[in-house]
Amino acid sequence: MVSRTTWAGFSIMAAFGGFVVLMLAGESILDPGGWRSAGLIGSWLVPLIVLCLLGYYRPEIGLPVLAVAALAPVAFGVLLLLDYDRWREFEDSVGPVSLVLSLVVDIGLACAGLHRPWAAGWLMLAVTIVPLMLAVIGAGEDWRRALTIGVALLPMVLSGALFVVAGRRRGTDTAGSPAIGVDRLADRAGGR
């Protein structure tokens, strides 16, 4: 059974994700228009749908796939760390790449979080916070701009935190397997 905290985390991510998806689709249709907009929308909507379906229907396969997909926003964060001005200029010309990367992975993780909230929550927090912190560090004196843009990510952080709390309260990631904490690892290592 899915707890209220899990549903709260999922609802926040679904509402925020739905709003941003509609905004991105509308902007893509208005700005380039035509077939180019269809290609732009498809470039992030198809992976979003695939990750959501995989996370919800097959979380045992979906979580490792989502963990690999989580490398994309982190890699873009590393690019921002190395050359912030160049990659912000790139984002200004093509759109919010870092937001789209994080959003696609986080919405998929929210779907997986309905079954495995603890693991999905920690991955959501990593996918959202790590690229932001890399951008803030890479921005140097312009760190306020990077952090201001990061304020838009607060619903994703809140959703991830709710999933972590839900998984911790439940004590399990799935119905049959325990969420392994430090104390349980120590018990296993000691042979107890």
What number of structural domains do the residues give? 1
* Structure classification: mainly alpha
Count of individual beta strands? 0
- How would you spell out the order of helices and strands? HHHHHHHHHH
Largest sheet: none
How does this model look, in words?
This protein is mainly α and 192 residues long. It has one domain (4-170). Helix content is 82%, strand content 0%. Helix 1 runs antiparallel to helix 2, helix 1 runs antiparallel to helix 6 and helix 4 (71-82) runs antiparallel to helix 6 (97-113). It starts with a helix and ends with a helix. The model is unreliable at 173-187 (pLDDT under 50).
Spell out the blueprint of helices and strands.
Layout: H1 4-30, H2 34-57, H3 59-69, H4 71-82, H5 84-94, H6 97-113, H7 117-139, H8 143-150, H9 154-170, H10 182-189
